Amino acid sequence: MKSLVLAEKPSVAREIARVLQCSKKSKGYIEGPRYVVTWALGHLVTLAEPDDYDKRLKQWRIEDLPMLPEKMKLKVIKQTSHQFQVVKELMKRNDIEELVIATDAGREGELVARWIMEMVRWRKPFKRLWISSQTDNAIREGFARLQPGTQYNSLYAAAACRAEADWLIGLNVTRSLSCKFNAQLNAGRVQTPTLAMIVKREKEIKAFVPRDYWTIRADFGDYYGDWRGKDGGRIFDYARAEEILSRIKGRMAAIKEVKTEARSEAPPLAYDLTELQREANRRLGWSAQKTLSILQELYEVHKLVTYPRTDSRYITDDIVPTLPLRLKSMGVGPYADLAHPLLQKPLKPGKRLVDNSKVSDHHAIIPTEQPLQLKSLNEEERRLYDLIARRFLAVLYPPYRYEQTTIITVVEGENFHSRGKVEIDRGWRAVQAVPSDKDEKDEEQLPEQTLARHKKGETLEVKSGKASKHKTKAPARYTEATLLTAMENCGKLVEDKKLRESIKGSGLGTPATRAEIIEKLIRTSYIERQRKELVPTSKGIQLMDLAPPDLRSPELTAQWEQRLAEIARGQGKRLDFMADIRRDTVQLVQNIKSDSSSTYRADNVSKSKCPQCGRFMLLVNGRKGKILACPERSCGYRQPEAEDFSGKGGNSRANRRLMAKYSNQEELETNLGELLKAALAKKEQG
């Protein structure tokens, strides 16, 4: 008898098959003496579409909403149905006695396998492979300690609830908005409150009125001091700044206080996925999706890092004995001299790295025991690995230690503050640059300078004084780094104190889904990337006036995410959660239906008419660039942007030349076929 191993991707399945000594390759699976390894390419199974319940629901009509199936059905995904048939036939083989779920070790990976099992009606025993790296050793150890599959029933329940909630909320609200305002408007339980944060910030920026303020700096000879009043260092009345300057110039100053303190700065925590995405965005300018994609390559292909989609920044006790081998394996090239000192004495990592209570499904992202071969990595993989490797080393290094001296100097009753620092031990800072979130300096923070020895009561002459003019700054637009932080900590935006405490630690989405949420907002033309900034479009801003208030708020979504986490831990009930989701769905749809004052106006209308229905098409984002889409939902016609003659497309200069040649668009379209034939003939002639 044999065990059937179900992986998520063909590449992972091939690696598992090799380790398990399965060498007989067949279409859709690899077989060996004890195991048969197959894969769930494209997930294979998904929730049924509305028209699978009722053919009438193929048409979008507001009177048919809300859609609330009594029991959510599953269906095989058409594009990968051939692989589903392979898996189904394997599951029904008489010589298969058990199933090993080897999909990604997380909520979504669990769902992939369980839905397939449900469709096939699997009734035999099943076990779970739960590993945090793809090395040969990790796979062998994982199969040596397979867990009972039923141990992950709560995780499956949470995953199914998440999928069903997204179906009910997303499809019903999207159809309601689209039908109500006759436009392609989509919404969801995570993407809408995320968009709401971006739109709210944009409105704050536009409403912001800058104010002038002044700061004063006095030169005392071998050091300088910055003026500080009761409310900080800003003076909003120029006359007052001038008055202070006139009083202190040429006067004698006295040192009121000299304080020297020994300080230390602990290493930063190891990376979880969200923190690594933030850091890569700040330092490398990468999108969250790009970081995740390259990280997956380091994990699956090169096997150099542990499981990427983690929300923990700590490791567990059982990982500590493996740290020396990890250091030896990565201690080559630029990391050799940094790893060597750590290997000279026993490693005793503290609570900054090891904390069982702060690890749920997977520990922090750290290097594996796989020997590092930098030549096998491309430039982008090396750059991301460098962040992970240096952070891992930094966490194992001692704190950064220094002496900080603060001097308060008084002139005519006005206080001037100075600060200096002397490094004692660079510690972890010798390994990794200061995390980029500490690079963003607070204007009120005192600058560091070299301070000579001074004593309390010492008098000095004010050599000069200067008032510098500044302007208050509007709130910064979100970057992907700051948006990821806001999504992770959306509970801070909740005004109700009790509710804020209750959802502490909950966020919008999960580390595994946040990158895709941002990309979806861009694809659907709700936001745009402008360099590093994320800027809402007119469509996104308008949607915030049309979407139900409850769905725009992070409170409701964060509460949902918290309850999903409780279900995953076995502390919440699936039926109770779904009953509340259904109730919320009815209310959200009713709010949209009853809205009698809101309107929507598309501002991305092109000059090209739809060849099927005659309406002017919209210029929108497609997966491979700009496209023209008919705004009429019942039509659905689409074409590449290059065929737009509005002057808005990538070929706008060429389009303008064509428009100049012909008297009107109708004449141009009539001659377009001849133009294309001539261009092709010219190309063939070389």
Task: Describe the protein's topology.
Blueprint: E1 2-7, H1 10-19, E2 24-26, E3 29-31, E4 35-39, E5 45-47, H2 50-53, E6 74-76, H3 81-91, E7 96-102, H4 107-120, E8 126-128, H5 136-144, E9 147-148, H6 153-181, H7 191-207, E10 212-219, E11 224-228, H8 238-248, E12 252-265, H9 273-284, H10 288-300, H11 323-330, H12 336-343, H13 379-396, E13 400-411, E14 414-425, E15 448-449, E16 459-461, E17 464-471, H14 480-488, H15 497-502, H16 514-523, E18 527-530, E19 533-536, H17 538-546, H18 549-552, H19 554-568, H20 574-593, E20 605-609, E21 616-622, E22 625-629, E23 638-640, H21 652-661, H22 665-684
Parallel strand pairs: 1-4, 1-7, 7-8, 14-15
Antiparallel strand pairs: 2-3, 3-4, 5-6, 8-9, 10-11, 10-17, 11-14, 12-13, 12-16, 13-14, 18-19, 20-21, 21-22, 22-23
Helix pairs in contact: 4-6, 6-19, 6-20, 9-10, 9-13, 9-14, 10-13, 11-12
Pfam families: Topoisom_bac, Toprim
Protein name: DNA topoisomerase
Domain Topo IA-type catalytic: 152-589
Please provide a written account of the structure.
There is one protein chain. The longest helix is centred in the first third of the chain and has 29 residues, at 153-181. The termini are far apart. A hairpin with a 2-residue loop joins β18 and β19. Strands 10, 11, 12, 13, 14, 15, 16 and 17 form an 8-stranded mixed beta sheet that branches. The chain folds into 5 domains: 2-145, Rossmann fold (3-Layer(aba) Sandwich), CATH 3.40.50.140; 163-206 and 477-593, Topoisomerase I, domain 2; 212-267 and 400-471, Topoisomerase I, domain 3 (Distorted Sandwich), CATH 2.70.20; 273-396, Topoisomerase I, domain 4 (Orthogonal Bundle); 605-684, no CATH class. The chain contains 22 helices and 23 strands. α4 (107-120) crosses α6 and α6 runs parallel beside α20. It is of the alpha+beta class. The chain is globular.
